[in-house]
């Protein structure tokens, strides 16, 4: 199914910019779920997302400017408040009432974790997902990137949860094709999605080590979580042999086959214990390896579980499909086709 076929995606929160991008107020053109918007911030105020075109003669509002607390259209100078209300039409004499239809449609927008988050539907939750480690003391939080990828947002989310690709896709970093097996793991459903704890063994090329010591192997547990239908959390627990780190992956659907891949990381310990630059260099390489493959995946992402072939190690990505089915209006047929739990789905071992 294409992103545009899943109506409930509009009701989720998406990161669309770094909060620093609005330091000058904007306005910035935004594209989300195939439609344009404009993002701006009044002086001293929070982010505002509105319709993209001026209700007067259709000028692109992102081509205007922000003056104090107002968004000013570039064409005839009409001025709008964060509420969307028009506050000044220069061509009208003072005292003449402003036309009631001179108003912009606005959408919820907030700042969290250094990002601007918006929702262009009816918000399914009160706000963006909570990033647990990013709110705990002792963790350093950083926006790694917001990057346009020529891939479906659903393929990016899927990849974040996928357990069997690293051995092949990440051969240049931590993957080992001689060790393709994913250890058995269980998965628990949570309020927003699910969580799985997966035991792993990797060579010592992790960001914490600072050395490409391929002779040393480290045991760790990968906690993989779908926080809500469109946000993932992954925490690597080293049980004391190295500092933990966590990253949050979000894929903002621009249209059916483009997404903003957004990643926030949280690193445990001090900069000396786990230098961000080292983490970044390693993890940048890993995401580039994913990008090469994901930009060559089919944007049509089947939600009906009978349309694809599944393995036991795909439990996490099977569960993503089940979660997304809930966002499709009239999805009863899909649910039936997919079965209601792992017991009814035929999967091959592995
Ligand atoms: S088109 Fe915006 S003020 Fe005329
Ligand atoms: Fe990957």
Walk me through the structure.
The protein is an alpha+beta fold. It has two domains: 3-118, Rieske Iron-sulfur Protein (3-layer Sandwich), CATH 2.102.10.10; 140-316, Naphthalene 1,2-dioxygenase Alpha Subunit, Chain A, domain 1 (Alpha-Beta Complex). 14% of the residues lie in helices and 31% in strands. It has helices at residues 153-161, 166-169, 276-294, 315-325, 332-338, and strands at residues 14-18, 28-32, 35-40, 48-50, 65-67, 70-72, 79-80, 86-88, 106-107, 109-112, 115-118, 139-149, 187-189, 194-204, 213-228, 231-237, 245-255, 258-268. The strands form four sheets. A seven-stranded antiparallel sheet has the order 12-18-17-16-15-14-13. A four-stranded antiparallel sheet has the order 2-3-4-9, with no helix packed on it. The longest helix has 19 residues, at 276-294. The structure holds FE2/S2 (inorganic) cluster and fe (ii) ion. The site of fe (ii) ion has 6 residues, from helix 2.
Gap from first CA to last CA: 26 Å
Order of helices and strands: EEEEEEEEEEEEHHEEEEEEHHH
Kindly state the percentage of residues in helix.
10-25%
Tell the overall outline.
Answer: elongated
Which key phrases capture this entry?
2 domains, seven-stranded antiparallel beta sheet, 5 helices, binds FE2/S2 (inorganic) cluster, binds fe (ii) ion
